[in-house]
Every structure is written in C-alpha cells, then in structure tokens.
Design a protein that fits this description.
Protein name: Phosphonate ABC transporter, permease protein PhnE
Number of strands: 0
Radius of gyration: 28 Å
Structural class: mainly alpha
Largest sheet: none
Pfam families: BPD_transp_1
Oligomer: single chain
InterPro entries: MetI-like, MetI-like_sf, PhnE/PtxC
Number of domains: 2
CATH class of the largest domain: Mainly Alpha
Subcellular location: Cell membrane
CATH topology of the largest domain: MetI-like fold
Number of helices: 13
Strand content: under 5%
Family: Belongs to the binding-protein-dependent transport system permease family.
Length: 285
C-alpha cells in the first residue's frame, strides 16, 4: 500500500476498521490492565524480598566468605577416612540405581493401566492415576522420613523412597508416551490376529521403549542427587557422611565429598549419553 493510497483513507474508513477489529488497535483498558499487571508483579517481588529479609545477606557476607575459605582450605588430608567416604558414595549410587530400576519396571506395567488407549475401563484408569498423584505428590524427602521410621536407618529406606517417588512420576510419563503412539502400527499387529500380549510387544513397545530408556536414564541421574539428600535424614549413603562432617565443622571434608559426588554425576551423564546413542540412535553433533 503506497503513501497516496493511505492519504486517500478518511476518518470514516479508519473508524469503521477500528469497530471491526478493536483489538488490533489496542485500547486504554488493555493498556491499563497491562500496567496494572506489571505494577502488581513488581510490588510482589519487592514485598517478597522485604518479607524474607534479603538484606541479611549483607550482614552474613563475612561468615559466608569464611565458610567458603574453610571449605577450600584442606588440612590433615591423611586423616579423612577415605574408605568411609567412598563406601558412602558407592551406597548412594547403589540406592539410586536399584530404586530407579525397580521404579522403571513397575512403571512399565502401571503406565499401560494409566493410558487411555490401553485401559478403556475408565474407573480403573482414574483410580490408577489418582494413586500415581499420591505417590509423586509427596516429596521424596518425606518418603525418606516415612521409610526411615518404618525400616530403620540405612540404605533400604533410601531405596524405598526413590522407588515410590519415581514410580509415580515415571508411570505418568510412560502413560503419556503410550497415549501418543502411532495407532497404525498397533492396528497392523492386531490385524494379524495377535493376542493382547503380542500387540503390546510388537505394537506398543517398539515405539515407546526409546522414550522409556531415555526417561529412566535421566531419573537415574536425578535419583543420584536425591539419594545424597536422603542420606541427610538417615537413609544411608553419602548424605549421612556429609551431615556428620557438617556437624563436626569439617567443611574441607564436606567440599571434598561434594566434589566427588559431582564427578559421579558427570560420569553418569556421559554414560547415559553413550547408552542413548547406542540404543536410541542419537548421534553426536
């Protein structure tokens, strides 16, 4: 549209277009709402900072720097009891692996009961979904406290906490993957006269198994971090060593343990990527 054409448009035409498309030109009400939202957000942020006493960082900065300096000033390293540290790390990895593996196996079956296309009976499907809401709605740390009370201190409580929490989340993710499959492959397998088990084996699993493997590998990495936190409530593993060192003000040993845990996370991430490339077909870029 040229400048001459625009000059030929009169006020009546402009008013008619405004009436036909009021939202395209904006309005004072819309601008007022937009400014009210921004003012509300800014006021909420400022109020939250005031409520949570953020200015205490200024008074605590000296203590923070002393703590950081203590964590990276390593002394008397020959007395650090490395056997206990690496035994705790091994327990943490075992807790994460066993809990995630059991959760993946349970979710492999539960996911089919929670998916709409594999469980047509609505009441049972909704019952399974509500159960999964309960399992993942309770934080993993709370499950750790429950199982520490039930089975006592030790790694078993951590394994059970990871298993219950991850089962709820993985089952939901698995069911969503099952619901998003290509129906044609399933119908083709069913047209051959295959029974329900073979339909699942050859119609569903080839499509969803790569997704299942990828999600389980990610949860194994996540559960390794969670197992460290679970140790703080007595569920065994490296977390118990960390809290013991903290209480004894051995911050240099705490830093050493945390660095070792980070190395384990990096190795797990690298191995997970290699497994995905091997079984899922991802290629490195």
């Amino acid at each position: 549209m040229t400048a001459a054409t625009l000059a030929g448009i009169g006020p009546d035409e402009i008013a008619s277009v405004r009436r036909m498309h009021p939202r395209a030109f904006g309005s004072w009400r819309g601008k007022l709402v937009q400014w009210a939202v921004w003012v509300g957000v800014i006021a909420y942020v400022i109020g939250s900072l005031w409520y949570f006493d953020v200015w205490k960082f200024a008074y605590a900065s000296d203590r923070v720097w002393r703590l950081i300096a203590a964590m990276f000033t390593w002394k008397d390293m020959e007395t650090w009891r490395y056997a206990d540290i690496y035994t705790g790390i091994a327990q943490t990895l075992a807790m994460a692996f066993l809990g995630t593996m059991l959760a993946s196996l349970a979710a492999l079956f539960i996911g089919f009961f929670a998916a709409r296309n594999t469980m047509p009976f609505g009441p049972l499907r909704h019952l399974v979904r509500r159960l999964l809401d309960v399992l993942r709605g309770v934080d993993q740390l709370i499950w750790g406290l429950v199982f520490v009370r039930a089975v006592g201190l030790g790694p078993l409580a951590g394994v059970l906490a990871i298993f219950v929490s991850d089962t709820g989340t993985l089952s939901k993710l698995y069911s969503e993957a099952i619901e998003n499959i290509d129906r044609k492959q399933v119908e083709g397998v069913r047209a051959t006269g295959a029974g329900p088990i073979k339909v699942v084996r050859y119609g569903y699993l080839p499509q969803v198994l790569p997704v299942f493997i990828s999600q389980s590998l990610y949860f194994f990495e996540s559960s390794t971090r969670s197992a460290t936190i679970l140790g703080l409530v007595g569920a065994g593993g490296i977390g118990m060593i960390i809290i013991e060192r903290f209480r004894a003000n051995l911050f240099d040993q705490v830093a050493f343990v945390v660095l070792n845990v980070l190395v384990c996370i990096f190795v797990i991430d690298w191995l997970s990527r290699k497994i995905r490339e091997r079984f899922i077909g991802e290629t490195s870029h």
